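User: Let's play a game. I give you a shape written as tokens, and you guess the letters that built it. Ready? Here's round one.
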């Protein structure tokens, strides 16, 4: 059964969401404060979670800090890819930007329709499912043989040492992606990426000769792009580069094309 953790201090909003989610057949765990979130996530109950709906403004804390803790707490490694959707006040655009930068997958601005929130959650799950199926299909197709052309990858191929994993051969080296657990590896080291960061990097890896605008990358990582927030892509790219540099500071993986966007090939 789909299990949602709802963290919202407004009882009216919480009750409305609970009714809508229960109509979908979803199980709801409701907390009205920040202090109860981490203990719940450390419990056995958290093993069944499908997503978290997290209010940015809580009486004893804030959802942004909670999201950051969830994404970067070692004991919660198994939840690092759990979709998180923020609830924000309509006027707080800075909260929306920070939420996406800190590892949130999407947001709903208050006031909102509960049906819209349900649709956004379904869109996140659908995108993950389609991506997994797409990579699995690519992996099982015999004609996809790995080769390098002019230092860049022209296609994807299965990694024979990693079951369903895919291999990307690029100028920066060999990358492995395992869709079953969303694990992306470079230089034999696993990258600790948020959902959004992983999707951005996979988008670039699948078309290494292409330059992607911020808007194109935003479209690639969400079904509900707000193009006013396209600049958040810069923050995600910065975060990805920082992690890649911690593995190999001598290799420039993602190149900035001024006035255009980002790509894996230099200008």
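Assistant: Ready! My guess for every position:
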């Amino acid at each position: 059964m789909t299990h949602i953790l709802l963290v919202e201090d407004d009882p009216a909003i919480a009750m409305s969401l609970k009714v809508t989610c229960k109509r979908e057949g979803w199980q709801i765990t409701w907390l009205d404060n920040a202090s109860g979130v981490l203990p719940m996530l450390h419990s056995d109950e958290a093993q069944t979670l499908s997503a978290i709906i997290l209010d940015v403004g809580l009486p004893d804390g804030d959802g942004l800090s909670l999201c950051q803790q969830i994404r970067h707490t070692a004991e919660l490694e198994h939840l690092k890819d759990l979709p998180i959707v923020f609830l924000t006040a309509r006027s707080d655009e800075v909260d929306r930007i920070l939420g996406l930068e800190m590892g949130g997958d999407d947001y709903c601005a208050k006031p909102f329709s509960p049906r819209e929130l349900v649709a956004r959650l379904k869109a996140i799950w659908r995108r993950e499912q389609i991506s997994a199926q797409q990579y699995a299909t690519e992996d099982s197709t015999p004609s996809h043989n790995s080769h390098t052309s002019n230092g860049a990858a022209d296609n994807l191929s299965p990694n024979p040492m990693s079951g369903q994993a895919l291999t990307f051969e690029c100028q920066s080296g060999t990358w492995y992606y395992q869709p079953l657990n969303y694990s992306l590896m470079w230089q034999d080291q696993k990258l600790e990426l948020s959902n959004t960061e992983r999707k951005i990097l996979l988008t670039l890896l699948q078309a290494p000769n292409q330059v992607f605008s911020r808007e194109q990358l935003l479209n690639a990582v969400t079904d509900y792009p707000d193009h006013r927030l396209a600049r958040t892509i810069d923050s995600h790219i910065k975060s990805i580069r920082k992690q890649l540099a911690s593995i190999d500071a001598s290799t420039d993986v993602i190149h900035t094309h001024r006035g255009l966007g980002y790509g894996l090939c230099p200008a």
